[in-house]
Design a protein that fits this description.
Shape: globular
CATH superfamily of the largest domain: Vaccinia Virus protein VP39
Structural class: alpha/beta
Number of helices: 19
Radius of gyration: 24 Å
CATH topology of the largest domain: Rossmann fold
Largest sheet: 8 strands, mixed
Bound molecules: S-adenosylmethionine
CATH architecture of the largest domain: 3-Layer(aba) Sandwich
CATH class of the largest domain: Alpha Beta
Distance between the termini: 69 Å
Helix content: 40-55%
């Protein structure tokens, strides 16, 4: 058996080898960068600046893949489908360094050539050398000028190329933003950055101020539980190890909090429900809030392995986890508060999943929308008269947000749409009664929230 590529040649740059192996796992087995890379870094004992470099290169290249491929195809004068996978991984990594980092051209090209030579020999190394030299003849701006649709003809296509998004996703964002090119540009730019880590200080366990002090972080500006972490490994923090704090986007914290605050008609009887709970971020926040309110949460999750994640997330909280289909979970109706944090395209959290934007397809939306409607309808059936239902998605796609909501409301004329904006302490939440958070406006994922109430 041949030795793993990263061990074959000691001269190979270890951070780049780890980034290359992450890109390979994404390409070959649809792996997630943020699961693969940390494991590789641990196994290979890559730490400090080297770990930071590997992370920047792996995540940055994964985010920009679709655009780098167009540049590589032009420089190689052939479609990327005709290039061997391992060679393509190294070309992507090299092109990323040339076009989107301050790494010098010589280092970017020579480390790439070394990587491929140690694994595949002189022939492919010569090809990588020739293609990367061509890539290096222009900077990113000149490649955009050459390959992106002209801004005058197709502003969305141009911005999508410039900020490394598939065009269809830029179109989805543009639609949700009401067509403003300036807003779209700001959003795509924010979405093209690595986001800061947000922690949630679980209420009743630790305050955001205490957490900020002990984590060297900064108290968040929107959620009263949020702390922004400057860097470092959140898993190493005592508050996280003890379960008092979690890694959770500030937008998700606001959604769980909004459900806990939504006005029911009649007293809250203490029965709360999370209908799509895995992996348990919002279930934990709801559990902590329920504990303070003297309530209990039932958490439903269809996938056993994700239900297991919920169980570990809600340990010591008043949350009962069950594996089931939220459309028919077999629970006694009569809940005061129900959360439908629906399975969705996740287009609102692309910043946090480097490779996701190139994996999603427009066709994914139609099936999800059907499921979302069914889950929201089931939630209304499980809520008591006067009870409230929060519908949220980590996607701003109008079909998944307003589209689902409008259809379900049309079928349930007695259900009232409450003003969710009153439950979310943030500016610029959009027109209408629903909330749309945005990375460029709020620094959160692009979460959507609507709050409905059953008639008495
Ligand atoms: C957006 S995620 C929920 C995230 C979660 N609320 C959190 O904050 O950690 C949607 C979840 O719904 C689950 N799911 C999908 N279809 C479902 C169904 N029919 N019933 C219940 N859960 C479902 C998925 O497995 C996934 O874990």
């Amino acid at each position: 058996m041949s030795r793993p590529a990263h061990l074959r040649d000691k001269a190979v740059d270890q951070p780049r080898a780890a980034a290359r192996d992450t890109l390979r796992a994404i390409r070959e087995r649809d792996a997630y960068a943020n699961l693969v890379l940390p494991k590789l870094l641990r196994e290979r004992q890559i730490t400090g600046r080297d770990a930071a470099l590997a992370t920047e290169l792996a995540y940055g290249t994964a985010r920009a893949t679709g655009i780098l491929d167009q540049i590589i195809a032009s420089a190689a004068d052939r479609p990327v489908a005709d290039i061997d996978g391992p060679v393509l991984d190294v070309l992507r990594l090299g092109s990323y360094q040339l076009l989107r980092t301050r790494i010098g051209a010589h280092a970017a090209v020579s480390t790439s050539v070394d990587l491929i030579r140690s694994e595949m020999g002189q022939g492919p190394a010569g090809f990588v050398n020739a293609v990367l030299r061509k890539v290096s003849q222009r900077d990113e701006e000149l490649w955009i000028d050459q390959l992106a649709p002209p801004i005058a003809d197709d502003v969305i296509g141009h911005l999508a190329f410039q900020y490394a998004h598939p065009r269809w996703i830029a179109q989805v964002f543009s639609d949700a933003l009401g067509g403003s090119a300036g807003q779209l540009q700001a959003l795509l730019a924010a979405d093209d950055e690595r986001p800061p880590v947000h922690l949630a200080a679980l209420p009743g366990m630790i305050t955001a101020e205490e957490l900020a002090l002990t984590s060297d972080g900064e108290v968040g500006t929107l959620s009263p539980y949020a702390v922004y972490l400057a860097g470092g490994d959140p898993g190493a923090l005592e508050a996280v190890r003890e379960g008092w704090a979690r890694v959770q986007d500030e937008g998700s914290q606001l959604v769980a909090r909004a459900l806990s605050l939504a006005p029911t008609v009649g007293e809250d009887t203490g029965r709360w429900l999370d209908l799509c709970a895995g992996p348990g971020g919002k279930a934990a926040m709801l559990g902590a809030l329920a504990d303070i309110a003297g309530a209990r949460v039932d958490a439903v999750e269809i996938a056993e392995h994700r239900a297991e994640l919920v169980r570990s997330a809600v340990r010591d909280l008043p949350v009962t986890v069950m594996v089931g289909d939220g459309r028919d979970p077999g629970l006694e109706p009569g809940f005061d508060r129900v959360l439908v944090d629906a399975p969705c395209t996740g287009l609102g959290s692309l910043r946090r999943r480097p490779e996701a934007r190139w994996r999603r397809r427009p066709a994914d939306v139609a099936d999800l929308v059907v499921l979302q409607r069914e889950l929201l309808t089931a939630a209304l059936g499980l809520a008591r008269p006067g009870g409230v239902v929060a519908y949220s998605t980590c996607s701003p796609h109008l079909d998944e947000t307003r589209g689902v909501l409008d259809e379900v409301l049309a079928e349930h004329p007695a259900v009232e749409l409450l003003d969710a904006r009153e439950l979310v302490p943030a500016p610029d939440l959009g027109d209408g009664l629903t909330v749309q958070l945005w990375p460029h406006r709020h620094g959160t994922d692009a979460m959507f929230l609507a709050v409905l109430r059953r008639a008495v």
